[in-house]
Write a sequence for this structure.
């Protein structure tokens, strides 16, 4: 029990950050017209590709003699890139069509 | 110095994510918003690569540490390869296949989060907090990955029947609870054994499959949106692990926005989320097998053409059938011809028509249908009474009157387009098969309804030709 309380207190700034971000997320989406739901979902999909930053961290800290880890790390960066690039490009394609009238 | 610069990069990235998402809520600024988000992402990625400094646990920079060149080659190789594949796939895919693609990209993000967890586990056995973030991120990312793959297969038609194990709700719930207990135990016991971690990983893969497999095709958009917020959550746990603000902001933003979007979609279908996940749709007990009375009347293309030509007001109700038949360009042609003849034409857009909310808008925008012709459900419903002809193209459940008048129907209470109020209803369908909800549609038996059977594109092309000759 004590360890859990300590953990919370140690990370309290992070928790504030999380709570505020949740509200920002809700605020940002509120009132979006139905027309834009699909592009928005796709755009949000691209943004969670930020997980690639974590994959790059892993790679930069990796033990270069561990081939298996290198392979996994490579794969992680590759998958993250696909999520980011594919996500933004598809969203752009959808929104491009909305523009021309 | 480098670390401070990196923090500024992350701050910039976080702001672009928030501003970008906000701008995407407005059709005028949406495209720029997406580009802002992409810009922030590029800054964050290259900032991470070039401004990296290894730190010890106390936060001091380890100046002696040099990242081997080979690692950089691998990172750039992966990014280059991913960019080429991602770019080409996204550019080439047909607009009708978009929902599948979003699901696939989402799964890849989830897999990325899962791999990070697999690799970081053994380096963090001394810290409960870090381990909790690793396990949570890995399990959620994995569930999102395998769930997205199933959603992808379901949407592209490789797996179009919901597969339900007997008592699947109980099995799934027990499985989920065991997964949580297993994960919690690993955080507390910290076993230094990769085999146990892999066991957890595979359990999560299986759970993702079990979670998605009983859910029917019509509910896939909701599931994708939900899995999307899962991946956001997994990214946020990565942010906890590395104390990385941009992963936290990006992840949580998507997590909360995705959850809200999921709820909005459920609301449009008038079903609680629990109903989508735990089923009821098309479940054997719920289907009110009402005998359909009345006859089905056919109409041919030339009669339809005449009817439309001499109308004042036509409303088109597009559905997934339109997307499948790739008929969005033909329908725009039809609209233009009718407008030339002085017929007012509008499109009635049901919020969940197609496979995703807004799917029809995207599709019709592709064929240059003007914005103001697309009318949302609340605005078009009062207009049906003054409409001469409603043309339903490949839509079914969204115009099913059972939602109003059959309490036994699984879609009872769902807001629908009140096409019944129009003078004439023409329904284009390939066959008499039921829609995604798997239920009969009373509308087809309505005396005002005429059925125009055939593939949407073929039929509409003929209709356009017929109209031209009038």
């Amino acid at each position: 029990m004590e360890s859990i309380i300590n953990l919370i207190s140690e990370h309290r700034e992070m928790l504030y950050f999380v709570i505020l971000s949740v509200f920002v997320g809700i605020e940002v989406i509120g009132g979006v017209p139905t027309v834009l739901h699909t592009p928005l979902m796709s755009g949000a999909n691209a943004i969670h590709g930020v997980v690639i930053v974590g994959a790059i961290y892993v790679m930069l800290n990796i033990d270069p003699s561990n081939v298996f880890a290198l392979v996994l790390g490579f794969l992680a960066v590759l998958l993250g890139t696909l999520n980011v690039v594919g996500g933004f490009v598809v969203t752009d394609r959808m929104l491009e069509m909305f523009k021309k009238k | 110095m480098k670390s401070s610069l990196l923090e500024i990069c992350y701050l910039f990235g976080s702001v672009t994510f928030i501003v970008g998402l906000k701008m995407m809520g407005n059709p005028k600024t949406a495209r720029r918003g997406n580009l802002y988000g992409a810009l922030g992402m590029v800054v964050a990625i290259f900032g991470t690569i070039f401004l990296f400094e290894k730190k010890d646990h106390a936060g001091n920079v380890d100046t002696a540490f040099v990242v081997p060149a080979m690692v950089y080659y691998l990172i750039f190789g992966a990014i280059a390869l991913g960019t080429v594949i991602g770019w080409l796939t996204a550019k080439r895919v047909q607009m009708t296949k978009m929902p599948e693609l979003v699901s696939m990209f989402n799964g890849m993000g989830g897999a990325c989060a899962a791999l990070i967890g697999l690799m970081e586990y053994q380096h963090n056995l001394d810290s409960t907090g870090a381990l909790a973030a690793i396990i949570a991120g890995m399990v959620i990312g994995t569930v999102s990955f395998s769930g997205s793959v199933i959603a992808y297969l379901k949407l592209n038609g490789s797996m179009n029947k919901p597969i339900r194990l007997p008592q699947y709700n109980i099995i799934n719930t027990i499985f989920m609870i065991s997964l949580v207990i297993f994960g919690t135990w690993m955080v507390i016991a910290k076993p230094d054994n990769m085999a146990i971690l892999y066991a957890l990983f595979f359990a999560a893969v299986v759970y993702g499959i079990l979670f998605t497999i009983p859910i029917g095709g019509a509910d896939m958009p909701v599931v994708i949106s939900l899995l999307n917020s899962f991946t956001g959550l997994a990214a946020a746990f990565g942010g906890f692990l590395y104390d990385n603000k941009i992963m936290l902001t990006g992840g949580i933003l998507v997590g909360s926005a995705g959850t809200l979007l999921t709820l909005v979609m459920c609301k449009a279908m008038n079903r609680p989320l629990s109903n989508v996940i735990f089923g009821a749709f098309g479940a054997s007990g719920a289907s009110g097998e009402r005998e359909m009375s009345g006859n089905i009347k056919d109409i041919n293309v030339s009669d339809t053409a005449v009817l439309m030509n001499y109308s004042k007001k036509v409303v088109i109700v597009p559905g997934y059938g339109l997307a499948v038949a790739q008929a969005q360009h033909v329908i725009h042609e039809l609209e233009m011809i009718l407008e030339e003849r002085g017929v007012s034409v509008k499109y009635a857009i049901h919020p969940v028509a197609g496979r995703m909310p807004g799917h029809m808008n995207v599709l019709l925008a592709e064929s240059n249908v003007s914005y103001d012709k697309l009318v949302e459900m609340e605005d078009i419903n009062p207009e049906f009474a003054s409409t001469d002809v409603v043309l339903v193209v490949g839509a079914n459940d969204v115009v099913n009157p059972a939602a109003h008048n059959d309490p036994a129907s699984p879609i009872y209470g769902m807001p629908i387009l009140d096409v019944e109020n129009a003078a004439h209803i023409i329904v284009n369908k390939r066959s008499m098969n039921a829609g995604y909800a798997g239920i009969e549609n009373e509308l087809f038996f309505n005396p005002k309804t005429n059925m125009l059977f055939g593939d949407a594109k073929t039929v509409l092309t003929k209709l356009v030709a017929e109209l031209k000759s009038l």
